Amino acid sequence: MTPEDRRAELAESLEAVRERLAKACQAAGRSPDEVELLAVTKTFPASDVALLSDLGLSAFAENREQEARGKVAEFAELRPVAASRWHMVGQLQRNKARAVARWADVVESVDSDRLAEALARATASALDAGEREHPLDVLVQVSLDGTTGRGGCAPEDVPQLAETITRTSDLRLRGVMAVAPLGGDVDVAFSTLSSISERLRVDHPEAVDVSAGMSGDLESAVAHGSTRVRVGTALLGGRRLTSP
Fold it and tell me: Which residues carry the post-translational modification N6-(pyridoxal phosphate)lysine, per the record (predicted)?
């Protein structure tokens, strides 16, 4: 496929996703401006990210640190003046915190005090070294199915984790993130996340982000207050293998 063909393919997919978002917002009585589209570019090349940037997107997500690191650098070479924000959305081990702090603008998958503390130390080091200019925005990932196999802390642990995050000036608590349980009722799951978000904002009014909804369930997420949907397959197609 030529770059021109790929651009046309991505443009068509992007238009379809934006139309879905617009209809979902209309059904929920919300403005489309209230919901950010986050392109999940994992396993896709930096050239696709560059084309999406050309089409007007500026928020991109990765779930593996090693793949993301190289992709962020390559994108910066392909589009050196393009505005972009990079989100880490995958499960993150503490020993990767230092590397992630070098390239991520947002980490959406913070699910333990120990990870938050590791990210705070890593961010402070990156700021001191001039490797980043701003504190790291983070979201608390919540498990909505009672397990931690796919990442996320228990709902009852959210207040304590939020306190850990806000004790440091190197992290900025921005809200919550969740993945709908496999085989579960997505409306129930996203309604639960909405309630968790409301309770969190009582003590942390700045934590307004609700990252929920993907290609298959974004309509439900928007209906329950999501402010950011994470779309991969519907935007980029089936997963492609790329070298990290």
Answer: 42
How far apart CA 153 and CA 161 sit, in angstroms, is 9
| Whether CATH 3.20.20.10 fits 3-235 | yes
Q: What is the pLDDT of residues 36-95, one digit of tens each?
A: 999 999 999 999 999 999 999 999 999 999 999 999 999 999 999 999 999 999 999 999
Tell me how far apart the alpha carbons of residues 44 and 48 are, in angstroms, rounded to a whole number. Answer: 7
Distance CA 81, CA 184 (A): 43
How large is the greatest C-alpha to C-alpha distance in the chain, in angstroms? 51
What's the DSSP call for residue 102? H
Residue 199: its H or E element: helix 186-203
Q: How far apart are CA 207 and CA 130, in angstroms?
A: 27
- Domain borders along the chain are 3-235
Q: Is 170 helix (H, G, I), strand (E, B) or coil?
A: coil
Q: pLDDT digits over 123-132, tens only?
A: 999 999 999 9
pLDDT in tens, 153-195: 999 999 999 999 999 999 999 999 999 988 889 999 999 999 9
C-alpha span between 93 and 35 (Å, rounded): 29
Alpha-carbon gap, residue 215 to 158, rounded angstroms: 26
By CB atoms closer than 10 A (0-12, 13-18, 19+), residue 229 is buried
Question: Token pair 């990765």 is at which residue?
Answer: 62
CA–CA distance, 207 with 10 (Å, rounded to integer) = 32
**C-alpha torsion angle, residues 68, 235, 92, 133 (rounded to 10):** 60
